[in-house]
Amino acid sequence: MTTRTTRPRRRDRRYASPGAHAFAILLLLGTLLPFTWMVLSAFKTPMELNGVDKRLLPGGFYLGNFEKIADTNFFTYFLNSVIVAAATTTIALLLAILAGYGFARFTFIGNRGMLLIVVAAQMFPAVMLAIPLFITVKTLGLLDSLTGLILVYISFALPFCIWLMRNYFMAVPVETEEAAFIDGCSRFRALWQVVLPPAMPGVMAAAVFTIIQVWEEFLYANTFIDTDAKRTLSVGLNSLIGEFTTDWGRLLAAGVLVMIPVLAIFGYLQRYVTQIAGGGVKG
């Protein structure tokens, strides 16, 4: 008696149409061209930037624009942005992990209503919340301080982080957590050692979202900070634009330096973020 062996079927590979490829290329070029122009222009001489020496590409790597940054408070702005971004991301992620776990694992009165409020909080534009937040920060005596700005950014980042972490915790099987309870783990220990590791792509995605939002935010930083020594990069770069003249070479060089940390962080965390599209949590 012979047994018939079945060969696994090959999966049909579907390729995108030429039109989709062309659209993707145009979208990529539209995204990269401004950054490419900024990087190239940062190495141009003042004559090349002012159009006296009409060249599309810089004649050489002119570093004078980067040297002129030392004459400003750029590095103070940079340090302030690092402090604000690190503190906001750390606190927002800790609160989002705890709140997301609570929404995912516990059923209590007002659960769905509170979750809807969290989701609806993302619908309000930032300019609408500027005045209420200004009054709150002023009442707390935290105007013109990095602490007040950090609290504002935490309130801005928390809704998305909570919603994201809640969905990731919902995808983690409850059986793995119950097995940890049987082995003697407390709920808090089970959260950090059993539930959280499979949800790390969500944590990293929330971290990337928070860092980018804080790093480039301008409205709140300009509203709540008056002292030049406490400004962040977004407001600090705006101060490099003069009333009558602007040193565009220095401004473009500063823009290149501002872009480097974000690209480095996103490049390092990209492998976690891309798992969201492919399903990062496995049962």
Provide a compact summary of the structure.
Helix content is 68%, strand content 0%.
Description:
It is a single chain. With 283 residues, the protein is an all-alpha fold. It folds into two domains: 18-62, no CATH class; 68-282, Orthogonal Bundle (MetI-like fold), CATH 1.10.3720.10. Helix content is 68%, strand content 0%. The chain has 14 helices and no strands. The protein is globular and about 75 Å long. The model has no long low-confidence stretch (mean pLDDT 84). Its main location: membrane. It is a multi-pass membrane protein. It is found in: Cell membrane.
Give the DSSP E fraction (strand runs of 2 or more residues): under 5%
Give the ordered list of helices and strands: HHHHHHHHHHHHHH
Mean pLDDT: 84
Q: What is the radius of gyration?
A: 25 Å
* CATH architecture level-2 label of the largest domain: Orthogonal Bundle
CATH topology value of the largest domain: MetI-like fold
Give the strand tally.
0
Number of domains: 2
Low-confidence stretches: none
Alpha plus pi helix count: 14
Indicate the topology:
Layout: H1 18-42, H2 46-49, H3 64-67, H4 74-105, H5 111-120, H6 126-139, H7 146-171, H8 174-182, H9 187-195, H10 200-216, H11 219-224, H12 233-239, H13 248-273, H14 275-278
Helix pairs in contact: 1-13, 4-7, 4-10, 4-12, 5-7, 7-10, 8-9, 10-13
Structure characteristics:
BP-dep_ABC_trans_perm, mainly alpha, 2 domains, MetI-like, transmembrane helix, cell membrane
